[in-house]
Amino acid sequence: MAPKKIIINPEVLKWARESAHLDIDEIPKSIISPEILSSIEKGVNYPTFTQLQRLAKKYERSLGVLMGDKIPELDYQKIPFFRKENQTDYDSSLALFIRDIQDKQDWAKNYLLSEGNAELDFIGSVSITENVDGVANKIKERLDLPHFRSFSNRHDYLKNLKVELEEHGIFISITGSNQSNKRISLEQAQGLAISDPIAPFVFVNTKNTTNAKIFTLIHEIAHLFLDESGISEDALRFRKTECKEDEIENFCNNVAGEVLMPKKEFLEEFTRRDGSLEKIITDLSNVFFVSELAICVKLWRLNLVTFDEYRFHYASIEKKIKDYLLAKEKEQKERSGGSYYNNLRSKNGVLFSYLAYSAYKSG
Fold first, then answer.
1. CA 301, CA 254: separation in Å to the nearest integer?
2. Residues 6+ away with beta carbon under 8 Å from 83
3. Is residue 235 helix, strand or coil?
4. Sign, Cα dihedral of 22, 26, 31, 34
5. Residue 199 gets which letter from DSSP?
6. Cross-sheet strand order for the sheet of 201-205
7. CA dist., res. 230 & res. 195, Å (int)
């Protein structure tokens, strides 16, 4: 006896696939063959209940949505890219991650409002026309950011930054995958910010180096102070100001650079160094807990190196970091994935986990 077919609206099923940023040929044949799926989406065939269940899991949609009469009016909102290569679309892993973050944000916002929480006064509190140094100082003072000299290593510094930011109502997710453990590549997103006056969310891709995570985290905080949501694929490179997105990225880069490498202290550290430029860059990276790329950019912006020196060393450092990350990824694949609960807490963030627990305890 052939399995019973389920009558559905083919437009809903096609929308579910496309909103998960998946092509038909990206659906595993173990779920359904591309020929059958294509015929279902065209309305000349119907899925079995098992096929529908598997597609619901793949698309991260409920069966109720896939069996609905029409496409839901409210779904996740796309947020803009801030990219150097004018790419405008993102892959399935990132799309599903953003959808999940926005679901969490919507729940957290409603819960906080029900508890009487007021809007955060720093969201949208600065303008892109303001002085970079002044904005950097506002961020440090308003969020009580710790000074890098208070820490002996970059890991403790990042950990403390995250704690301070969450204590000020910013939801932080530091992970390398979405809820289905699908990898979010650095090429897709080094970080993102989803601004909101009640429940702002920031994501930092854990697949990067610790120094790069620190810079990306502060870069995304600058986005929140501007009230500008967006995805940063390269939260460091400076762009020609040919559009609003480039202006915003350059501003957030400059602000993050000043928060983490205050000009006065940077010049003091630079003047007491000697040796090759390569050694100086490495030394300053270890002092300020930022990547050598960030140091290279800061040296150029302060006219401490020529453009040719900057360009040569930037390219050399970039290659070194890419080689390191490839080796790190290979090593991690050969090891176990670590503690499930630690990974989940890092993915959801301490603040969100605390709110969920509080809501559970209160019924």
1. 9
2. 231, 233, 234
3. coil
4. positive
5. -
6. 81-82, 230-232, 191-194, 201-205, 171-175
7. 9
Which amino acid does the sequence have at 110?
A: N
Burial class, 231, CB count within 10 angstroms (exposed 0-12 / middle 13-18 / buried 19+) = buried
What whole-number distance in Å separates Cα of residue 268 and Cα of residue 288? 12
How far apart CA 82 and CA 88 sit, in angstroms, is 9
pLDDT beyond 50 at 235: no
Residue-by-residue DSSP string for 258-321:
HHHS-HHHHHHHHHT--S-HHHHHHHHHHHHTS-HHHHHHHHHHTTSS-HHHHHHHHHHHHHHH
| Mean pLDDT computed over every residue of the chain | 86
- How many angstroms separate the CA atoms of 16 and 65, rounded? 9
| Residue whose token pair is 């809007």 | 119
- What is the helix (H) or strand (E) element at residue 171, kind and residue range? strand 171-175
Q: What is the DSSP string of 318-354?
A: HHHHHHHHHHHHHHHHHS----HHHHHHHHH-HHHHH
In the chain, pLDDT over 70 holds for what percent of residues?
88
Spatial CB neighbours of 262, under 8 Å, sequence gap ≥ 6: 136
d(CA 213, CA 218): 9
Alpha helices in the chain (DSSP H): 10-19, 34-41, 49-59, 63-66, 92-114, 132-142, 154-167, 210-226, 244-260, 263-271, 277-288, 292-301, 307-334, 340-348, 350-361
- The rounded distance, in Å, linking the Cα atoms of 123 and 349 is 20
Do residues 20 and 96 touch, judged by C-beta distance below 8 A?
yes
Length of the chain counted residue by residue: 363
55 phi/psi in degrees, rounded to 5: -70, -40
* Look-up of token digits 């989803």: 194
Q: Which amino acid is at 85?
A: E
pLDDT, average across residues 120-127: 96
Residues 6+ apart with CB under 8 A from 130: none
pLDDT of residue 241: 47
| pTM score | 0.82
